[in-house]
Amino acid sequence: MPDEITKSDEERAGAAMPDFDEARLSFSWDDAATLVDGWPDGALNIGYEAVDRHVEQGHGDAVALHWIGKDDTRRQLTYADMAVLSSRFANVLKKHGLEPGDSLFALMGRVPELYAAAIGTLKAGMVFTPLFSAFGPEPIRTRMEIGNATVLLTTAALYKRKIAAWRDQISSLKLVLIAGNEAPDDCVALGPALDAASPEFETVHTRPEDRALIHFTSGTTGKPKGAVHVHQAVVYHAYSGRNALELTPGTIYWCTADPGWVTGTSYGIIAPLVNRVTMIVDEAEFDLDRWYETVQREKVEVWYSAPTAIRMMMRAGDAAAEPYVFSSLKFLASVGEPLNPEAVIWSHRVFGGPFHDNWWQTETGGIMIANTSAMDIRPGSMGKPLPGIEAGIVERENGSVRECESGEIGELALRPGWPSMMRTYLHEQARYDKCFVDDWYLSGDLAMKDKDGYYWFVGRADDLIKSSGHLIGPFEVESALIEHDAIAEAGVIGVPDETAGEIVKAYVVLNPGFEASEQLEREVRGHARKKLGPAVAPREIVFRKTLPKTRSGKIMRRLLKARELGLPEGDISTLETDET
Ligand code: ATP
Ligand code: MG
User: Fold this and answer.
1) Mean pLDDT across the stretch 42-63?
2) Which of 21, 187, 235, 326 is the most buried (most CB within 10 A)?
3) Which ligand is nearest to the CA of 260?
């Protein structure tokens, strides 16, 4: 496998940051802040920055949203349309007595109203919280309780199935808006309400530190936390969208994430709109041919997706991609989980450009470490901290931290101070405070920095395996496993062992055309031993149809482990697929 994918001078010249080192040296937050307008009174509002200012500046005709329905119906909303629809939405909220600071929860599929509602909520100075529409009743209820929801926006079907039975228990809830023209008695139908509302709304002059968004973490490691973000975050969304994702006015951009996950809001609504791109939104879930066809037909230029989807594409093989033309693609990026080197190389071959891995968290609100367009890629590395971001690898030592040498594994830490950093965990101030030691924010992820400044993900602190004196990150083992022709995906855990402390155990999903057998297990173990050495290679391999994943597509290793050990499963509110 090549150690590096190098970029040509031409590729570099066309990038937002042609010279990364120079961009780092010359970076200033004042410059970054010029990407948004704000108001002379010091107010700042994400909704205004994302939509209305573009209309005021003469770009109302540009397409903001190109929507593809599940049944292939299409809708296009220009920036002017989006401004009007979001203003009407804000007026509906106002008419029902809602006020700045109130909290709107959205529970619906990826339809244009959701996007306009997000902007309208922000323009009204209220706090926007998107949830996955596929959540069950209990995860919805607990999140609405934690977030003191005052408004819920949903559909009639979801309301009936998931909400109606316990709606009265949420004492803060004042209004339920139902998309479409009809609604149950105790709810308001959004369609007629929007029609009756004025298309003009004066955006609330929120202060930069006013709350704007609450995002619940994915729940990969435990009970999800509600991370609070403020309007100031828009500076970082604008800046990182521009520099880490190559978003410029008019770019055709497809972020495949659902707004129920922070990626689908930060980079699926705010960053693209603030940078005045045309967003492609597909209401349907992953389907290989549909995705390839969408890229080809819509001439997608920037594509932001996640390792689970990329592995699914890879699993289908080169032949499945063959009939499609991907020449419109200029920049591909991935987030959410470690991106296996194999997937980087594969995408480079098939799409003509590699997926660029980047790392961030719900807490950081935006991309922190990235492979940018002008950077040579080391497959398997997350890239380098963006200009403006100071990162480090540290070790906790008696209540303080020590910075690690390059090559040493430690906890990935960031110097607080960038605009999109969470301001607290809702109702969990102590948990929030614990993230900070010696003026570092500690991410809970383990990583390593090489001598050239590239960061390499090792694993979540909780997932690290200690076997016969070795520290083993699951990612390394999983990546080696999926290099085997038979293996599509792998989840690796440590299980207790009397002599070794822990031994490595792998759960794997096979590629089409392969059958589980003892012989295949032996062969895969042999392959892993050759790649990783006997101390790190899995001792045991279990074949599964799927791996347990969160709705944002992350392998839940803690669940594999709890089941292995017969321990309680803990919070599984975000669990998606699960078939043994
Ligand atoms: P919870 O905090 O509730 O356990 P979570 O950490 O999965 O869930 P998110 O904020 O959605 O919730 O995910 C952030 C985490 O995802 C990171 O801390 C990291 O572990 C993982 N991650 C994100 N991007 C990458 C990446 N490029 N490489 C490796 N891991 C990544
Ligand atoms: Mg987390």
Assistant:
1) 98
2) 235
3) 1
Fold of the 390-461 domain: Luciferase; domain 3 (2.30.38)
**pLDDT exceeds 70 at position 310:** yes
Mutational pocket test of ligand 1: of 213, 220, 421, 456, the residue with most ligand atoms within 8 Å of the beta carbon = 220
Distance 415 CA to ligand 2 centre (A): 17
Average pLDDT over residues 119-144: 96
What residue's CA is closest to ligand 1, atom 2? 217
Where are the domains positioned within the chain?
43-229+265-276, 390-461, 464-565
| For the CA of 265, the nearest ligand | 1
pLDDT tens digits along 108-130: 999 999 999 999 999 999 999 99
Q: How far apart, in whole angstroms, are the C-alpha atoms of residue 223 and residue 221?
A: 7
574 CA distance to ligand 1 middle (Å): 14
Residue 154: the pLDDT is 98
Model confidence at 3: pLDDT above 90? no
3-state secondary structure 225-264: CEEEEECCHHHHHHHHHHHHHCCCCCCEEEECCCCCCHHH
CA distance 399 to 139: 35
CA distance 252 to 244: 15
Beta strand pairing call for 226-230 and 211-216: antiparallel
Count Cβ neighbours within 10 Å for each residue of 37-67 and write b for 16 or more, e otherwise: ebeeeebbbbbbbbbbbbbeeebbebbbbbb
Q: Please state which CATH number belongs to domain 43-229+265-276.
A: 3.40.50.12780
* 577 confidence band (pLDDT: 50, 70, 90): low
How far does the centroid of ligand 2 lie from the alpha carbon of residue 442, in Å?
11
Beta strand pairing call for 127-131 and 103-107: parallel
Q: Are 282 and 290 in contact (CB under 8 A)?
A: yes
Which pLDDT band holds residue 579 (cuts at 50, 70, 90)? low
Nearest ligand to the C-alpha of residue 308? 1
| pLDDT at residue number 142 | 93
Ligand 1 mean position, distance from CA 225 (Å) = 13
Structurally, at CATH architecture level, domain 464-565 sits in 2-Layer Sandwich (3.30)
- For the chain, give the percent of residues with pLDDT over 90: 95
Query: What residues does the ion ligand 2 have nearby, CB within 5 Å?
Result: 217
Q: CB–CB of 419/398 below 8 Å?
A: no
d(CA 131, CA 262): 10
403-440 burial, b if ≥16 CB within 10 A, otherwise e?
ebeeeebbbbbbeeebbbbbeebbeeeeebeebebeeb
Residues 162-219 have pLDDT tens digits of: 999 999 999 999 999 999 999 999 999 999 999 999 999 999 999 999 999 999 999 8
Cα 552 to ligand 1 centroid, rounded to whole Å: 10
Q: Is the pLDDT of residue 2 over 80?
A: no
DSSP H or E stretch at residue 140: helix 137-146
